[in-house]
Amino acid sequence: MTSSPYLERYRQLGTLDQQKNQLIEDLLQRVTDLEASFAQEKLDHERETRFNRDIQLHEMELMQQISQIKTIMDREPFVVVLLDGEGIIFKDEFLQAGEEGGRNAADQLYAAIHSYLKSNLPSVTTPKIMMKIYLNAKGFGEQCARNGILTDPGAIHDFIRGFNETMSCSEIVDVGSGKNSAHNKIQETFQVFLYNCHCHQIFVGCPSNTEYALFLEDVSKDNDLTGRVSLVEGVAFEKELDVVKNSYRIANFPDVFRSAKMAPAWATAPWKSTLPTRSVLTPSPSRQFSNLSNPPALSRTSTNTSASGVALSVSTPNPIDNPPEFQQVVRPKPTGSTAPKTVERNKYGQRVDRLDFKSIPRDDLNRLKKLKLCNYHFLLGECPNEEFCYHDHDRKLTKQELHILTAIARMTPCRFGLECDDPECIYGHRCPQSEPGKKTCFRGDSCRFEPVAHGIDTNIVKVTKI
After folding, report:
1. For residue 378, which of 397, 363, 360, 359 has the smallest C-alpha distance?
2. HSE-CB of 176 using CA atoms within 13 angstroms
3. For position 292, what pLDDT does the model report?
4. Dihedrals φ, ψ of 246, to 5°?
């Protein structure tokens, strides 16, 4: 037997030893790497354990601080009642009872608010109730006397004194006769309390006008804020607030506030007759044009009609038949001119307002609306309430601004509608937003004008001479 087979076997065993040694080295390196990874993981775990422990301690401290802050926030809860005396009016029996009526009114309103909170906001426990009512005391007293509620307008101060003496957090504030005084004070006070953590609810009572509608519409854009506000409804809300009223809670207190309007204090009251007598009076339009279907009785006088030969009649209201909600507007003093005045009509005998609303810049129209100008003063020449009128009489208007103010007045429907024969009537007889032949406008059913006032033919073929 030769040595070659043995040599070959030796070489194979040597190769196996090398592979074995390499395996041992690889295993040792792997163990070293795992030990290093384990040490790092152990270090990270210990660090995370310490971090979690610190976080838990910090969280406990924060929860304790939050609990302390919540205790502070809940310590003096209160609600605020902000009322504009022009739109929210106490019932007659309170106003007539003087100081005692003022005290009873404050007590009844407090009880009504407390009952409302208990039913609708049970989470608000034992809150203080802060009530602030803003009104023009002199003007309001005269309005009450005009409506026969008070015999002396100065007696309203007795009611105010009784109301203010009842509770330390409740008061009636006399804002004077300035324009939008009550609105401005309510808006500023509202902003102060809206983000106050102690104030859990704000009650707002206001008349249905554009200023409050715009203000409440801005607030309604934030859903987180609307839940903090409730609207107080005395007289039913009109269309100015239709857009925004659904965004808020509505609170009704029929045992405290009037649900019917009072006639304005502009007409002469039985206790005051300082306005001069005028021979020509015209009634203002009703707030809702729908009253056109049942207009008051009219007296008729003959007139001359050109172009068609058809005799039309001049409609003048009988003062006795005027309902109390229509104020009397004094016409300008007659001039020496005897030239007849005219009313333009289409072939159907419908009155046509010769005014192109599309030609008026929208920005100028909105700007003039915000100025709160007196239509009677600038368009009719004389305001029946010069001394107490809330609208502007002092501004100097250009010819273009007078033209725009005429358009603004035409946006209010005349209660005599298309049959109106008053040549000096400043109100609208057809919808300014409608086009001839179209029986509706972009406002649809919410338009202030009746359907019959839409799609009017504007071609003038008849002129009624007055």
Report:
1. 397
2. 5
3. 36
4. -75, -10
Do 76 and 198 touch, CB atoms closer than 8 A? yes
User: 408 CB contacts (<8 Å, ≥6 apart)?
Assistant: 365, 368, 369, 375
Q: Could you give the CA distance from residue 259 to residue 91 in angstroms, rounded to a whole number?
A: 9
Residue 279 corresponds to which amino acid? Answer: S
Helix (H) or strand (E) run with residue 115 in it:
helix 98-120
The per-residue pLDDT for 466 is 59
CA gap 376, 389 in Å, rounded: 10
Can you count the helices (H) and strands (E) in the chain?
12, 13
Span 452-460, average pLDDT: 86
Q: Kindly state the average pLDDT of the residues 182-193.
A: 91
pLDDT category at 40 given cuts 50, 70, 90 is very high
Name the token pair of 32.
Answer: 């070293």
Phi, psi (degrees; rounded to nearest 5) at 254: -65, -20
Spatial CA neighbour of 204 closest among 173, 182, 224: 182
Residue 226's pLDDT is 84
CA distance 46 to 63: 26
Strands 298-302 and 313-317: antiparallel
Alpha carbons 249 and 191: distance in angstroms, whole number: 18
Q: 95, 150 in Cβ contact below 8 A?
A: yes
Share of the chain above pLDDT 90, in %: 25
The CATH number assigned to the domain with range 78-252 reads: 3.40.50
Surface-to-core class of residue 245, CB atoms within 10 Å of its CB (0-12 exposed, 13-18 middle, 19+ buried):
middle
In this prediction the pTM is 0.48
DSSP one-letter string for 201-267: EEEEE--S-HHHHHHHHHHHT-HHHHTTEEEEESSPP-GGGHHHHTTSEEEE-TTTB-SSPPPPTTS
Closest CA to 380 of 422, 350, 421, 413: 422
- Tell me the domain boundaries of the chain: 78-252, 281-465
Identify the top-confidence range among 1-15, 99-113, 200-214, 362-376: 99-113
Q: Where are the beta strands (DSSP E) in 58-176?
A: 78-84, 128-135, 170-174
Which tokens in the block code for residue 333?
């003093």
Strands across the sheet containing 78-84: 170-174, 128-135, 78-84, 199-205, 229-233, 249-252
Q: What is the residue-averaged pLDDT of the chain?
A: 79
User: H/E element holding 317?
Assistant: strand 313-317
| Dist. CA 390–CA 179, nearest whole Å | 5
Residue 458 contacts by C-beta under 8 Å, 6 or more apart in sequence? 346, 352, 354, 436
